[in-house]
Amino acid sequence: MEFKYEYLFLLGVILAIVWSLDFWKVVSPSKLLYIKKATSSQLGTLIRIIVYIIGIIGIGYLSYSLTFPRKPLSFSPNTKEVNDIFLVIDVSRSMLAEDLSPNRLEVAKKKLREFAALRPKDRIGIIVFSEKVFTLLPLTTDANLINKVMGQISVGQLGSGTNIGDALGLAVARADASETKNKIIVLLTDGVNNVGTLTPIESAEKAKEFGIKVYTIGLGSDRDARIPVGKGLFGTHYQRIPGGSIDMKTLEDISKMTGGMSFRAQDENSLKDILVEIEKLERTEIKVQSQIVYKELYYEYLFLGFLLFVSAELAKRFVLREVV
User: Fold this and answer.
1) What average pLDDT score do residues 249-270 get?
2) Do 265 and 294 lie in a common domain?
3) Which domain holds residue 97?
4) Structure confidence at residue 76 as a pLDDT band (50, 70, 90)
């Protein structure tokens, strides 16, 4: 048995005290009028006690009903649609290439923000990588936090190199620890794996083993691009990097192996279209045992208490025939 408002029982105690004082005329004794033949004093006293007991029991039931007693019957499965999605983002120096305006990383951040905003029911996690890998944001549904963390992503904090294998492996491990059935990784990179402990294919094999889909996106155009390398007397110095240097073959193998899809984004619009396509992923449901079905009991005690109390009042007026 549970009670929603236990403290309201005190109102019943106060009512019982006030009614008892009035019933026994403690403050101002009443006069008894006998319209017909008077009953014996003993019988009158007995009837009065019985009426009092009925009234007190009625007040007790009314007081009990005020606490809103209820009996938990069972858990009602509360389902909601959800995916766990890890965004694995390349932050190597080549992501500063300006073949996408203002650069590849800023375009990626902008479109991934939009992608996350389209999935308010899903949990989003963010992993960034260059030479090292780092979980920037564990799984969360907090849209404001996702947006804020996404804005803080920058190049240069995780060394040099492109460690796709370890980054994907970390995402797989994080996703496998989740209870959600539908787990998805979106891997965005503009380069070739050249450092790390795990190869991208080894990590993909683990993703396949755990039933985790990996969607890969190769970001960057086929034309040569330039990246800023410093400032001098005559402005910013740039370094040219060759276009089309993305290892699309490995990205395609990863997606094919895990049941995902592989895409090539050469400009902002194509990246947007790709993320919209991924957004159409099939949703699944998880059951949350948080909703309890109750049997509400207060109305039964309310009705019984009201009936007894009114009966006592009527008996007081018409059986005991009391007037002040």
Assistant:
1) 96
2) no
3) 84-282
4) low
